Amino acid sequence: MGGSGVQRWVKFSKYLPENGWQPVIYTPSNPDFPLKDESLLSDVPEACEIIKQPIWEPYRIASLISNKKRKDLEVDNFREGKNPSRKDQFMNYVRSNFFIPDPRVFWVKKSIKFLTKYLKENPVDVVVTNGTPHSMHLIGLGLKEKLGIKWIADFRDPWTKIDFYYTLNLTKKSDVKHKQLEKEVVSKADAVTVAWDAIRDDFLKYNKNIHVITNGYDVSNFSETPAPLDSKFSIAHIGLLNADRNPKKLWKVLKKIGEERPEFLQDLEIKLIGNVEGKIIDTIKSFGLDAQLNLVGYVPHSEVHNIQTASQILLLVVSDTPIAKGMVVGKLFEYLKAKRPILAICPEDGSLAKIVNETQTGEAFDYQEETRLEQFILNAYEQYKKGILAIDSKGIEKYSRRNLTKDMVAVFKSIG
Questions:
Q1: Do 129 and 25 belong together in one domain?
Q2: Looking at residue 45, what is its pLDDT?
Q3: Does residue 375 fall inside a structural domain?
Q4: Which domain holds residue 254?
């Protein structure tokens, strides 16, 4: 599967063997997902045992009913500002209230049955479930109850505090069910690992054995010789940009600078790599930045790093939602390793801003900030014109995938 989320355990699996642990991966044999990235297969250890079982997913039926493409059927695409049709609203209601916690829930019972037999014949030291999708944690819960195995529930995203939870159109009964399942999973796991501080803080009421192990970067994905810098004054964003991640003040500032300094627009390139919602494109064009916009589309992960290291500025936008203060998006860590100035649009007193400030890799700006943002762009542009736009990052080594795997192994050993 393409995208950033899958990389968390692909990378852990890559570095577990050198720490004395052999990963066994259980995964669907016929998964349905919107993005495919074959380049990630190179990170799976050759000696790794991979077990596959078929899965049935309702997305196949939903795609026949709806006019939406598969990638637009994911629940976090039903957001405010998207003006969904009545048919899509109905589909969102069905998805939210009949498939709890998510449409992969149909894999749970058959997986528990299959893995109960497998684990009796092939004992392991620890079982790890990773979410989202959080239905995977129900597999761990079932195995814990049947076999008493050592179990770690790993959350790269929150559950009921995820930014799109408010869009699910849940009934009161469904909301209660989500929260009951969340409490049961977190409280019954031998240990819980999470990618953000905010997830830990929310879960401490259920379980005190919680460890923050962030996402990170894999040094082996970066060339020892960085790609040549873009000739343009490129501001690049890599990954999904949806309605909640629309930095309108940035587009406004870029327009203002361009009106005052026409040569700025000649040098500027707004480079967007990945899926970009139409509303973002419309907003950029409304500020007269059509000529500066470069829509690249999805790029395999193996090619992303050259784009990152070549960009003059790396743009990072956190969803403008109630949980924004605690969010730390996965792409941040590869941005750190790219060693290009980061322009982060996020709460200035939030977790992501803290990392950017501590590592001296850029600056963070609140969603409504204009004055400081304009000054940052102007300063960066002046340095770009002189050929000296750069950063001197500090302390990013702790976010390497190799070091983070050692942290995960320490959790394994703690419950042994």
A1: yes
A2: 84
A3: yes
A4: 219-397
